[in-house]
Amino acid sequence: MADRVDFYFRQRVTEAELDLAFGLLEQADRDLAADIGIYGIVTGAVPTQHSPVPGLSVDLTSPTRAYDRLGQRVFIGIDRTVDCSVDLVGIPTAVASPGNERWLAVFLRFARQLSDPRTDGNAQQVYFRRDESYELVVRQAPEGPVGAATRVAMQPDELLVCDIRLAHGQTQLLNTHIDLARRQAFIFAQGDAVAVQSGTWTVLQPAVNTVQATLDDVDAELADHFSGGTRRHPASAIDFAPHAFLTAVTLQAALVELLDRLLSTISGSPGAQRIGADAAPGTPHGLGPGTVDSQLSQLLAWLNAHVGAITGAHSASAIAALPHQHISAVSVQGQLEEIVNDLKSTNPSLGTAQVGSGAVGGSPYALANGTARTQLSSLLGSLNAHVSSGDHDGRYWRRVETVSNADMVDGLHASTFALAGHDHDARYMRRVFLQSDIYDPGQSRVVTTLPDRPDLVTYSYNHLTSGLPQATTYIRGALSEQIRAWVTKVSASGDKDYRVTVQNQSSSQLYINVAAYRVGT
Amino acid sequence: MSNTKATRLRVPRESLSTRIGALNLGKAKAYADFIRDGDPDSPVPCWGAITQRFVEAFPSDEERLAVLDQLIVEGDRRPLYLFIETSRRRPRLLAALCERVGELPVSVQRNLVALPEAATYVASALEKLDPSARRVWDGGEELKRSERELLAGRVGELMAFQYFVPDAFDPRHEPAPKTTAAPAVDPGAPDDGGTRR
Asked: Range of B153's domain?
């Protein structure tokens, strides 16, 4: 109800008294709203980026209805566009410094719309209508570093529509820049002003029996539930639809059944049989899709075959090996090849230089520990020293020495008797002529003329077959008596030559071989 | 006559024919076959026929030089004696022999340095000579003549037999001479008393 005034009979009513009556009624209306806590934006005034082209302004939807904290009603019948480039006193809102930002706030506040002007008794112009109206107010907070700028403080007699964040150099306000977190939406009544009956509740136990306390309790219960601190569901209270090999109908039972199946070691139905596995391509072996059990079985079979293989298990090139010493290859194959190549190498630092050899005792020379190369070098040095030093003792004859008269035979040096190199002197007879030819029966022939008289002339013969001498040469045969040979001294320019003549006195054609020998030069 | 392999003379037929047959000469293969087996239906050749066929088959110096390489490698003195004998009128071959004289057997060297036809080439190869051959070179004409006589004798021996011809009868049963000797056709032949008839 409202405070009242009681006009009386023949009262002369003044302007102030009439205004008071309306003011009391209006105040009663506002007190009602204020008493039960009604305030905020009921509908409308939803901010969006300016359409069609965004700029430094925002659009508000209509119709807008709201009540401020004094219970004053605010109504806007049409869509409005709010210019945010300046604040309510005309100061630009642009951010001056790079790296800074600024929060703007759009407020809605109650106002009156004056109209219907008239002239009163004092000849003053007054407005007879004072309708409810509104004002849209843009306020700006100080700019600050991005993320640390402060927001515009809430205004007690205004309603916050939205906050807007403006960056340095920004020329457009988009929906992403509009923040409704602090928007003062309509509140019908305070929760702690509404009572509840909690006597039959089993879970909720509000501190006081108000809606606010009850909602606080619900929130606490849900918070505990959602965070999992307390108030968790038992798994047995969660339904489960049977699936695959699981037949249980609660989560608890399903988990138990799942674990039992997975932990099973029963032959033919092991846990690994319940776990799928996709294909695993590979060379030389590849696994097809199946279960962990089937793939483990396959892997075990391959592994056993590999470990038990006598040959061909691994290529040596597929076995890793750590580089060591001077061997740098990283596979067994590579290292073996490198070792063989090094051993075959004629590089002084490889080959025998890489073969160790223990000490070899001896006197006067001995070989110290080292490599085959160092020991060979030592041997070569000793041998060269030995050769050049002539250090054989007296038991040995030197190369340039002759042992006693070992090179003499009957007082003559061995070279005197060399097979190919010596020359017989005049004491030896030597052949000075040899000729073979066919002689017809009765034919005689001068076979040669020698400058010196031969001391011996020999002849032999072969029988002929088809004009060719047979294999046997007769030194003294049946026809030897019928072959004659003689030497005739002939004169040749004052010197004497000796003509050798042979005659075949047989009646057979013979192949006669004649040779002449002489003693002396 | 038979061409049986069992009757071959002691001639290095296999090795010599193989070496010569490997030469890149058109006639080498046929000559190698001849050394090894002779002509078809003919007796087995001896050095005489082998030498005669060599002279006929390889008329050019280039061909004979190719054969010489193989003879030196073979190392047998007999074909080298014959090669020298058949090269005495071929200066290029004598020059080649002297250039490689150090690779020849000593007896062949001695024969070669004794040849007056080779003297020019021997003079430029003295450092290669065996001391024995050098002794012949330094020994004067008489010593060289002796070597030439030796060479002639050796060549005569080798050339005496052209082919191997088996005996027509057992030598132990050589037919007796006919009672009537052939009439002497040499009027200058002495009679049995050594006087002219």
From this structure: 10-161
